[in-house]
Automatic annotation (TrEMBL):
GO biological process terms on file: chloroplast-nucleus signaling pathway; mitochondria-nucleus signaling pathway
NCBIfam families noted in UniProt: PPR (TIGR00756)
Originating organism: Acer saccharum (Sugar maple)
Protein name as catalogued: Pentatricopeptide repeat-containing protein
Keyword Methyltransferase part of the UniProt annotation: no
């Protein structure tokens, strides 16, 4: 009978001519039945039908009707709507409905709370998700391991891995042991921040702790090895996956293909592409684009075009990056007709242009001295709201700067910032200074990024007087220093041993409301440890925790090294033990410091155990540790 009723309700929900208020539907049933259980079941069914059909407002009407009618509303019943809203990305409504559940005294379970937390994290609202969990804990609802892992993952995706470490520590205090998923998401988060040494240790921890080997662990390690230039090791690990009963996935293949592309090894990328097709792994947009880009860079436009055809035949989406690689390749070959055809094809297919697409085509026209066409593209670009500026790519910035000067178009702040930052990072401070002076002559506005890049450049050169002058220039122009500016200056003064000036800047930034981060604290801690002022270093370590910053591997490495220099090896060993208990895996410097100290004390067995441990984690020992022999020989210092 209920199957028939559900069919009728589905018809009512989906036919606009039949749709009617919930109260009317229920009244019709109540008129023909005096059984409240039957009416309650009908409401539950109607709630599910509306939720399944994406009619969320109507679902909430049912909820309101049931609450007013005094029906018992269970958490499991409400979760149908929470899951449906989460799936559709309707997180504001999901969160609002969850609040309604709490207000209606529904017995909330950890499952429903976790569903809402998952949705908030997917939407980037990790702090809101954490606040919700804390509120629910205060109401007696205890999170599950999955809840904590979702929050840790949210922080890692947001790039706030230090907050992920803090959440992991809270999770462990509550008696939950991290699982393979915990370690893998932290390793992935560290990879995004290019903290590959730490990421490698977290990935190896999965294997060391005896968790089942899965594709995520292997793929993360392959990614780390590829990104750090260890392609041969990455390939060996990739080839060993089958022996462990793990099949590589699209991420594993794409990581290796990209690694070999960056090395310019086209043959290896082709071999991997063929292997993935043989293995039943379907290449995606990233796979095809990586290969197409490599063919284009090598001037093999025929092969690139064939691969584009293959990609389209397989129904794989061609995106902006794919088209831009091809357009750039054809422009470099001076085949502007084909480049222009692809450009127009992008528009027909609704594929978005970006600055790189335009700059490739404009550069092609300029090389052919077709300045009228170049001007048209420039106008088209500006009409689309794309600024002739680019971030993070010096070659593109130089290209656009040159073109804009030819056309007498004002070069923007972002282009200059890209170039100044690039030259500073390369150590060419004189060229960066020249560009800075050029900006002033042309009346191009300086911003915090301009000053911070140049100040950092002077600090890295040890020219603190120049950095200080520039900081004065910055303040006089009304440009406020930010955390990057202060960190650069503090680092410069610490390296010069001018700790008083570094500490003064630290206090100044706090007074101005610029919140110190881990880089700030670690720089100062390292400076004090180097000078043997351990009391000040430990005060800073306590201070950083009080404001919510979590000590990391660099904090502990500095403190351990400082205690060894101060001849307090017992304190150093305590810190080493503490960092491991907190889930912070030591780096090669920390292991080396401790192993050497244990060896000097004649505690060879302990030293060798740690030496083996670091190798298990995939950390390559320093040269000074290779002389450590079983039983007697002490490593050279």
């Amino acid at each position: 009978m209920f199957t028939d009723i559900r069919f009728v309700l589905n018809c009512i929900a989906n036919d606009t001519n039949l749709q009617t208020p919930v109260s009317n539907i229920v009244s019709l049933v109540e008129d023909g039945s005096d059984d409240p259980i039957f009416v309650e079941k009908l409401c539950r069914m109607l709630f599910r039908v509306y939720s399944d059909n994406g009619m969320f407002e109507e679902s909430i009407w049912v909820f309101d009707y049931m609450e007013k009618s005094g029906f018992k509303i269970r958490d499991k019943f409400c979760r149908v709507l929470l899951l449906a809203l989460n799936k559709r990305g309707q997180m504001d409504m999901c969160f609002s409905f969850f609040r309604r559940m709490v207000g209606a005294n529904v017995d909330i379970t950890a499952h429903s709370m976790t569903t809402v937390i998952h949705g908030l994290c997917k939407g980037g609202k990790v702090e809101k998700a954490k606040d919700l969990m804390e509120e629910m804990v205060s109401k007696g609802i205890e999170p599950k391991l999955l809840t904590y892992n979702i929050l840790i993952n949210g922080y890692c995706i947001n790039g706030t891995v230090d907050k992920a470490f803090k959440m992991k520590a809270i999770m462990e205090q509550k008696g939950f042991e991290p699982n393979a998923f915990t370690y893998n998401i932290i390793a992935g988060g560290l990879c995004k921040l290019k903290r590959y040494d730490e990421a490698k240790m977290w990935s190896f921890a999965v294997i060391k702790r005896g968790f089942p080997h899965d594709v995520v662990t292997f793929s993360t390690l392959v990614n780390i090895l590829s990104k750090t230039g260890n392609l041969e090791k990455a390939k060996l690990l990739f080839e060993s996956m089958e022996k462990w009963g793990v099949r590589p996935d699209i991420f594993t293949y794409n990581t290796l293909i990209d690694g070999y592309r960056k090395k310019g090894n086209l043959e290896e990328t082709k071999w991997l592409f063929e292997e993935m097709e043989k293995g039943g792994v379907r290449p995606d947009t990233t796979t095809y684009t990586t290969l197409i880009d490599e063919y284009c860079k090598k001037g093999k436009m025929e092969e690139a075009h064939k691969l584009l055809g293959h990609m389209e035949a397989k129904g794989v989406r061609v995106d902006t990056v794919t088209y831009t690689a091809l357009i750039d390749g054809y422009c470099k070959k001076e085949n502007l007709e084909e480049a222009n055809r692809l450009f127009e094809e992008m528009e027909k297919r609704g594929v978005r242009y970006d600055t790189f697409t335009y700059s490739s085509l404009i550069d092609g026209y300029c090389k052919k001295v077709k300045m009228e066409e170049a001007h048209k593209r420039m106008d088209h670009m500006e009409a689309r709201g794309l600024r002739p500026d680019t971030k993070g790519n010096m070659e593109e910035a130089h290209k656009l700067k040159g073109l804009m000067e030819v056309w007498e178009v004002g070069v923007g702040t972002v282009t200059y910032n890209t170039l100044i930052d690039g030259y500073c990072k390369k150590g060419n401070i004189e060229e960066a200074k020249r560009l800075f002076e050029e900006m002033e002559k042309l009346g191009v506005r300086y911003d915090t990024v301009t000053y911070s890049s140049l100040i950092d450049g002077w600090c890295k050169k040890g020219k603190m007087e120049e950095a200080h002058k520039l900081r004065g220039h910055m303040e006089a122009r009304g440009v406020k220093p930010n955390i990057v500016t202060y960190n650069a200056l503090i680092d410069g003064y610490c390296k010069k041993g001018q700790l008083e000036e570094a500490k003064r800047l630290f206090e100044e930034m706090e007074n101005r409301g610029v919140r110190a981060d881990n880089v700030t604290y670690n720089t100062l801690i390292y400076g004090y440890c180097k000078k043997g002022e351990m009391m000040e270093a430990h005060k800073l370590r306590v201070g950083m925790e009080e404001v919510g910053n979590i000590p990391d591997v660099y904090t502990y490495a500095s403190l351990i090294h400082g205690e060894i220099l101060s001849r307090k090896s017992s304190e150093a060993l305590k810190l080493f033990s503490e960092m491991k208990q907190r889930g912070i895996l030591p780096n090669v410097c920390t292991y080396t410091t401790i192993v050497l100290e244990l060896s000097k004390q004649g505690r060879t067995d302990e030293a060798l155990r740690l030496y083996d441990e670091m190798k298990e984690y995939g950390i390559t020992p320093n040269d000074c540790l290779y002389s450590l022999k079983v039983g007697s020989q002490v490593p050279r210092s």
